[in-house]
């Protein structure tokens, strides 16, 4: 049987039965938007998403308000939301001070990060990759000692806005380093959306030789329109956790006018069509995406969100 | 070897080495836009696309100007363009009058169409599917006798805005009917963009049991963000001809604000990334998409087009 026949036979099977979606709109999404969203709106956003069936959600970022003023109210958001049973609320913690604030806010999971590109690390967080990992080591240790879930995000896993191509080896090296810091989950992130489907399959497969595939997550941006094709490719090599942002919240800071995170609505539409379960109600998320886009005075970045809203209005 | 292992082994191979792109922006794209484009701009659009390496292009629609006024200048467009050697120029011909005009304009290929949905046929062209095929029979016969390439497009192959789901059998039935009319090529068209990747694989495989796979073309709309995932799926089952529209020209008439044809730029970005040859220069198409979007006073519908233009401006 040749390769072609294998693909043919693979049609309609070979995909995971169920995947986990990490909703990143309220944190990674809002963080990249220039509009400040009132705390009450953020709280309502998180609560409504959980009501739609979301079980993992990024809710806050404990970073210096000097750098990201629109996320300065992380503690108030965490204090204001309804903490639903069985839901994991995550926060970004770039340093010990952030971790302490996250612990005080009783988050379930903290997120650290590092780039697969030296140039990006220098330009984005003003230190080398090695230095960034040293800084994260105590954050990781205390997080684990406190009993928190620890997740790491590898930015620029498919390309860098400053250095261009990023090698598979550079990503795998970061996977090993984060594994050695005791991370429970590692995100393979296409920060600028430049990856394509076979490249994604190659990187995911290489990463899975160093870290359990079930604990790798795909974080794809739709800047070049590739996110869903990349996720379809990742599903075919067995990846089961994906990040998505309601309404496509979050622009791409490196390309004006370009889109950022893949929209949760578009991802759910794909997964529903493939018969892959998520436990999340697409119709409810479509309404939330429409609502939050209106709150922010921005266009809805979810293509299926817009199409399904138009259908609702017609019916 | 289980299915999962087959997919894994399939990574990075099993795709066609080269695919044909039919550029539909100047016809299918412009036809769905409400703005009237001056004839000179249409001519320049066709010439520039051919200059970028496009070898198959929809250049005109010989339909009644009463129905589609923005395409009333088909004969002038065909007379005004530079006819490059080795390039096939196509026109839509809904009836004998259209065919006669197309022959007079010396097009290389004519396109007829029919729906896989009875409800769509009635609502869109005011007759049953069977009646539409009867009307096309003489068009098809004369086209073949004249030595023209004859292509048929099956609309609503994955869903219908009026009846909802469309069965694989309904599509296969249309494939047989168009085959029996002597068509050289048949388009499987997702008119409203509702299909997802496995559904696409199923329909393409079923169609290919009735008609050569190499003469089937995929026409995908990005209304629900699925177009590139669908094309990636179709490539995996061996499809080698795809339609695309520069700048994503063409809205979706059934969902206000929603996107239409998959953008040529996004498709080329995917194919370049997969190492699948097209003979078309992405960078040149990005410039054309930016230019034509400005001419029409519309936002560029190509995600990679926008991202790559932003990079050009920065460099």
From TrEMBL, chains A, B:
GO biological process: ketone body biosynthetic process; L-leucine catabolic process
Cell wall biogenesis/degradation among keywords: no
Transmembrane region(s): none
Domain of life: Bacteria
SUPFAM superfamilies: Aldolase
Domain Pyruvate carboxyltransferase: 19-286
A Pfam family this chain is assigned to: HMGL-like
Keywords, in A-Z order: Lyase, Metal-binding
Single GO molecular function: hydroxymethylglutaryl-CoA lyase activity
PROSITE patterns with a match to the protein in the record: PYR_CT (PS50991)
PANTHER family on file: HYDROXYMETHYLGLUTARYL-COA LYASE
Family: Belongs to the HMG-CoA lyase family.
Protein name: Hydroxymethylglutaryl-CoA lyase
Species name: Paraburkholderia madseniana
């Amino acid at each position: 049987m040749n390769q072609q026949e294998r693909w043919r036979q693979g049609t309609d099977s070979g995909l995971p039965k169920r995947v986990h979606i990490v909703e990143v709109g309220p944190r990674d999404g809002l963080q990249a938007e220039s509009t400040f969203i009132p705390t009450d709106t953020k709280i309502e956003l998180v609560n409504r998403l959980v009501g739609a069936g979301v079980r993992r959600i990024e809710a806050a970022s404990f970073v210096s308000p000097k750098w990201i003023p629109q996320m300065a109210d992380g503690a108030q958001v965490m204090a204001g939301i309804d903490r639903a049973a069985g839901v994991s609320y995550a926060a970004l913690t770039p340093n010990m001070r952030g971790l302490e604030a996250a612990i005080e806010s009783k988050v379930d999971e903290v997120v650290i990060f590092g780039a697969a590109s030296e140039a990006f690390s220098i330009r984005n967080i003003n230190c080398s990759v090695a230095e960034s990992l040293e800084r994260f080591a105590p954050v990781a240790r205390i997080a684990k000692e406190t009993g928190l879930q620890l997740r790491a995000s590898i930015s620029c896993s498919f390309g860098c806005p400053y250095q261009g191509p990023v090698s598979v080896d550079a990503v795998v090296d970061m996977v090993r380093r984060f594994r050695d810091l005791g991370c429970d989950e590692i995100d393979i992130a296409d920060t600028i959306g430049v990856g394509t489907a076979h490249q994604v399959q190659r990187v995911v497969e290489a990463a899975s030789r160093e870290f359990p595939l079930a604990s790798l997550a795909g974080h794809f941006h739709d800047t070049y329109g590739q996110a869903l094709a990349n996720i379809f490719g990742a599903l075919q090599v067995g990846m089961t956790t994906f990040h998505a942002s309601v309404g496509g919240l979050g622009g791409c800071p490196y390309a004006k006018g370009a889109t950022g995170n893949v929209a949760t609505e578009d991802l759910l539409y794909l997964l529903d069509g493939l018969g892959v379960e998520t436990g999340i109600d697409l119709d409810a998320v479509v309404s939330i995406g429409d609502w939050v886009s209106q709150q922010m005075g921005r266009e809805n970045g979810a293509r299926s969100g817009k199409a399904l809203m138009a259908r609702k209005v017609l019916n």
